[in-house]
TrEMBL record:
Name under which the protein is recorded: procollagen-proline 3-dioxygenase
GO molecular function: iron ion binding; L-ascorbic acid binding; procollagen-proline 3-dioxygenase activity
Organism in which the protein naturally occurs: Poecilia mexicana
Catalytic class of the enzyme: oxidoreductase
GO cellular component: endoplasmic reticulum
Keyword list, A-Z: Dioxygenase, Endoplasmic reticulum, Glycoprotein, Iron, Membrane, Metal-binding, Oxidoreductase, Repeat, Signal, TPR repeat, Transmembrane, Transmembrane helix, Vitamin C
Database matches in Pfam families: 2OG-FeII_Oxy_3 (PF13640), TPR_leprecan (PF23557)
Record-linked Gene3D superfamilies: q2cbj1_9rhob like domain, Tetratricopeptide repeat domain
E.C. no: 1.14.11.7
Region described as Disordered: spans on this chain: 711-758
Gene Ontology biological process: collagen metabolic process
Transmembrane segments: 30-50
Start and end residues of each Fe2OG dioxygenase domain: 576-693
Length: 758
């Protein structure tokens, strides 16, 4: 490097010269380092606490000493001697100041920590912190030995997050169901399919598979067993059922068991927090700037936060995203009522007292308590009725943890989301409460304004971009459609192309697809046919439909993607997540006075609740859909208009009449509730497409279809080669080529498209 040559040839005095050679040898690293330091300094100012005898004052060191040092060395090599001297001196001073500051902070903080521990100091010195460290070490050694001895023989390999995710989403059962199907163990396959579906209720293919298993000989309804049933939910549902039929004795029994099981589950989960590998929050890692105590505090806070999060984990049903709020206190409320109604007054009183540990000021409960005292004559103590011990222990422990966590939030830059609604106000630091109040006020104001103002779409799309296809026109934009992120484009397909796809739908339907002849899932007055890309490719492979039609179906997806990606100025990548060629036909003779819809009003990526105008982004909604598109193919039918509404699902804001080559695109979220009016005559066909911004959720079926084509191309190629070979013209290189196997693990839903197709 130029740098090395120049300076090695002009080293100063011998002593310095040898130093300069050492530096010169490292100058490659040095250059990179200096560049990094410049960047660092540009980005931040280091603030170090320095202290005088009485109090501490903040010493702002604009530049870290390592940077000063390297700048000094650089100046030295640049022969800027004065500058070099200044910078090198400064670096030495800064380092000294930093050490002094650290020492002072250590002395200032000696007395901090829990006072009770200071009492443990003896004449031999301050030993309790060493005892604490000793306790930690003993525990670590015991765990290391125990886990090593118990798990090592079976191999405790580090498990990646991806694998954790696979297991949490029950993906192994997706593999198992196909495996058992292949082994002709249908009962086991049915159970595996069901187990997977419980955790993935929006998985269309698995739903189809389950339907297929149901129709298979030898499979009974009892075979659809969830292999990972969570007992507390079984008890919860049973208790609810007994309650609904006013069987209070049974209800009380189930609720009691449910509370116990829930406590046990929470405990199991909390223990895992201690023994599983703990991650330090980002920027608190080994390379961070924090000292040993700060790192230890960060680690202990992560542990506490992990323990607390168990409440949410246990209160979330498999397959759901949101936890059931106030899970334990709610169960206690139910148990209390069931006990009371079944005549177990002392049991009810005990449960009420347990509930009051969560909500000590709850008016109704306090009134009830009073009533019990009057009935029993005397208070709970005089009857020896205390809150359940496990509940008292649980609440105390949780409160302690929360106060430590909130200290971390307030003072140590820790982030913690409290999973409970019952946390008493005084545990939360005033400054946080103030922030919450301010946030709540803003939300309330927004809700108030909400009715008058326009809906805000947080999808990241921004309608109004260009339309990059010759002949395509924008027929309706946001204004014309009275909404946000909506568009109607015309000219996306030619008449000939519409005919080809209609023909494809007709042939596929006549051959029998999952939906053939089925009543529509939305109305008894229509039938419904659906064709996916993969099914189309398989049909064309079997020579039952024209391959060029299937290719066109595939290409249309890409065409629509390009148009909408550009029009909605999608900031990120946009991936096709599902394609469905759908025809809805009016059934004959059942159309008089129809009041229903062909497709009721809905939002594509969340569950719309028109009464509250809320939209819940959780399964069974297709929550990963970000952009929706319908490409229409014909207009020779009556009805079948697409319409948009407000969140009340009633107020219609725009209507679109289908025709060949007309494309409607809109963001899939709550700004766009929509439905389809009844098809009262004829058959309405459209290609529905959904897009996702997350690559993880891209359509794996589509990729499988592409792989089938590639394999086809390969075998066609091979055929050609064999022919050629026969004719003596094959080349070794071409024969060696083979179709690469599909990569198996591609993240969250990596394997779904492939495995579950029966
Ligand atoms: O066919 C249409 O026009 C709309 C269909 C739709 O909204 C859907 O499938 O989610
Ligand atoms: Fe829809």
């Amino acid at each position: 490097m130029v740098f090395i040559c120049r300076h090695s040839s002009s080293s100063p005095a011998t002593a310095v010269g040898s130093a300069s050679r050492t530096m010169a040898l490292r100058s490659e690293h040095f250059t990179v380092y200096v560049a990094l330091c410049f960047l660092l300094v540009a980005l931040c100012t280091v603030t170090v606490r320095a202290s005088g005898g009485s109090g501490s004052k903040v010493l702002s060191l604009l530049q870290p000493y390592d940077f000063l040092y390297y700048s000094g060395v650089r100046a030295y090599y640049g022969e800027e001697w004065a500058k070099a001297a200044e910078l090198l001196e400064k670096s030495i001073q800064t380092k000294e100041a930093l050490l002094r500051t650290r020492r002072q902070c250590h002395d200032d903080c000696v007395a901090s920590g829990t006072k009770a521990f200071n009492k443990l100091d003896s004449e031999e010195g301050s030993m309790w912190d060493l005892w604490a460290l000793d306790w930690i070490q003993q525990k670590a050694e015991c765990l290391r030995f125990c886990i090593g001895r118990s798990v090592a023989p079976t191999g405790q390999l580090p498990v990646s997050n991806d694998i954790e995710y696979e297991f949490n989403t029950r993906n192994p059962y997706n593999f198992l169901q196909v495996t058992y199907y292949k082994l002709e163990k249908l009962k086991k396959a049915a159970s595996a399919a069901h187990t997977y579906f419980v955790a993935n209720p929006s998985h269309l293919e698995m739903r189809n598979n389950i339907e297929k298993y149901r129709r298979m000989e030898g499979v009974t309804e009892d075979d659809f067993q969830d292999r990972e049933t969570e007992k507390h939910w079984v008890l919860y549902d049973a208790a609810m059922q007994h309650e609904a039929s006013s069987d209070w004795l049974q209800a009380a029994e189930k609720w009691r068991a449910c509370v116990n099981e829930t406590l046990w589950r929470i405990d199991e989960c909390r223990v895992q927090c201690e023994v599983s590998p703990q991650l330090l929050p980002e920027d608190r890692g080994v390379d961070g700037v924090d000292g040993a105590f700060e790192k230890a505090a960060a680690l202990s806070l992560s542990l506490l936060s992990c323990r607390q999060s168990c409440v949410t984990q246990v209160a979330t049903r498999t397959g759901r995203i949101s936890a059931q709020e106030d899970f334990l206190p709610t169960q206690l409320e139910h148990l209390h009522i069931a006990q009371f109604k079944s005549g177990d007054v002392s049991g009810a009183l005990q449960t009420l007292r347990s509930f009051l540990l969560f909500y000590p000021n709850d008016r109704d409960s306090l009134d009830n308590l009073q009533l019990y005292y009057e009935t029993l004559g005397g208070d709970a103590e005089s009857h020896g009725i205390h809150p359940a011990q496990e509940i008292a222990k649980y609440v105390n422990q949780s409160l302690q943890e929360k106060s430590l966590l909130y200290f971390g939030v307030e003072n140590l830059n820790f982030t913690f989301t409290d999973p409970d609604l019952w946390t008493p106000e005084d545990v939360v630091p005033e400054s946080l409460r103030e922030n919450w109040r301010a946030e709540k006020q803003v939300i309330n104001e927004k809700i108030k304004e909400g009715d008058q103002t326009e809906e805000v779409d947080d999808s990241g799309f921004y309608a109004g971009g260009s339309v990059p296809q010759v002949g395509v026109t924008i027929t309706m934009d946001d204004d014309a459609l009275n909404g946000t992120n909506r568009v109607v484009l015309d000219g996306v397909m030619t008449e000939k192309e519409c005919d080809k796809i209609l023909q494809l739908a007709t042939v596929a339907a006549s051959l029998g697809d999952g939906y053939r002849g089925r009543r529509s899932p939305h109305t008894p007055h229509e039938t419904f046919e659906g064709l996916t890309i993969l099914r189309a490719v398989k049909l064309s492979q079997d020579g039952l439909v024209d391959q060029s039609d299937t290719r066109l179906l595939h290409e249309l997806g890409e065409r629509v993607r390009t148009l909408l990606h550009s029009y909605f100025r999608s900031p990120s990548g946009l991936f096709i997540s599902f394609t469905h060629l759908v025809c809805r036909s009016a059934t004959t003779g059942e159309q008089e006075g129809r009041m229903d819809l062909s497709h009721p009003v809905h939002v594509d990526n969340c569950l719309l609740e028109p009464e509250t105008k809320q939209c819940w982004r959780e399964p069974p909604a297709f929550i990963h859909r970000d952009l929706s598109a319908i490409l229409y193919l014909n207009d020779n039918f009556d009805g079948g208009e697409l319409f948009f509404t407000e969140r009340d699902a009633k107020t219609v804001t725009a209507r679109v009449k289908p025709s060949c080559g007309r494309l409607v695109g809109f963001s899939s979220g709550p700004v766009n509730p929509h439905g389809v009016t009844a098809v009262t005559r004829g058959r309405r066909c459209a290609l529905a497409l959904w897009f996702t911004k997350e690559k993880l959720y891209r359509d794996m079926e589509r990729e499988e279809a592409e792989a089938l084509w590639a394999a086809d191309g390969q075998s066609a190629l091979k055929k050609d080669e064999e022919e050629e070979e026969k004719e003596g013209g094959a080349t070794a290189g071409r024969n060696a080529r083979s179709h690469a196997p599909k990569e198996r693990s591609r993240g969250r839903n990596a394997v779904t498209g492939r495995k579950d197709e029966l």
